[in-house]
């Protein structure tokens, strides 16, 4: 969904997941979900500024109006990002989806069942998403429809 939105507004895109996979490759860490979650948790705890700069680098360009970063999972990372780009503004958009729809999508994409999804959601890289980040969001977008519908909602909010 975030890539589609970035394309619609002609913005550069990056994600914490992509940066984590790149770093995993550089550090010879297996690129499996569990190992990536552990690496991500380590980066947030011990190398947060470096990790944030790595994620920001591809989207901070030559004066583009917008950049899109996907995969924000921690309030302290949002604060770090905002400090790093100040006086530019970072807007946090929380993309909300019902548990049923999320489970359906994760089942199709990753082959996970409800138990597997619950295990993923209990990891330290996920626990703040539904609570802290939702509270800090500047906008909450409903993603129970198509990705195009969600992207359109965000676009209408950004450019009324």
Structure description:
The chain is mainly α and 160 residues long. Helix content is 57%, strand content 10%. It has 9 helices and 4 strands. A two-stranded parallel ribbon has the order 1-2. The protein has a two-stranded parallel sheet with strand order 3-4. It is globular.
Short overview:
The protein is 57% helix and 10% strand.
Topology:
Layout: H1 2-8, E1 12-15, H2 16-26, H3 33-46, H4 48-56, E2 67-70, H5 75-85, E3 93-96, H6 99-110, H7 114-121, H8 129-136, E4 139-142, H9 147-158
Parallel strand pairs: 1-2, 3-4
Helix amount:
55-70%
Unreliable segments (pLDDT under 50, ≥5 consecutive)?
none
> Radius of gyration from the CA trace?
16 Å
Name given to the CATH homologous superfamily: P-loop containing nucleotide triphosphate hydrolases
Structural class call reads mainly alpha
Q: Helix segment count?
A: 9
Overall number of structural domains: 1
Under the CATH scheme, which architecture would be assigned?
Answer: 3-Layer(aba) Sandwich
Q: How would you write the strand order of the largest sheet?
A: 1-2
H/E order of the elements? Answer: HEHHHEHEHHHEH
* Mean pLDDT across residues: 86
Q: What gross morphology would you assign?
A: globular
How many beta strands in the DSSP annotation? Answer: 4
Remind me, CATH topology? Rossmann fold
């Amino acid at each position: 969904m975030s890539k589609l939105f970035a394309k619609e507004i002609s913005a550069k895109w990056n994600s914490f997941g992509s940066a984590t996979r790149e770093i995993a490759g550089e550090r010879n860490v297996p690129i499996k979900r569990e190992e990536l979650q552990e690496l991500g948790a380590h980066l947030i705890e011990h190398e947060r500024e470096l990790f944030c700069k790595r994620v920001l680098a591809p989207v901070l360009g030559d004066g583009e109006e917008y950049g899109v970063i996907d995969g924000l999972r921690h309030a302290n990372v949002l604060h770090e990002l905002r400090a790093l780009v100040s006086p530019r503004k970072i807007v946090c958009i929380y993309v909300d989806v019902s548990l049923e729809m999320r489970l359906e999508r994760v089942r199709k994409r990753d082959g996970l069942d409800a138990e597997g999804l619950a295990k993923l959601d209990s990891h330290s890289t996920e626990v703040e998403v539904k609570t802290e980040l939702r509270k800090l969001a500047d906008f909450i977008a409903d993603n129970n429809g198509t990705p195009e519908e969600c992207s359109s909602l965000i676009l209408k909010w950004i450019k009324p």
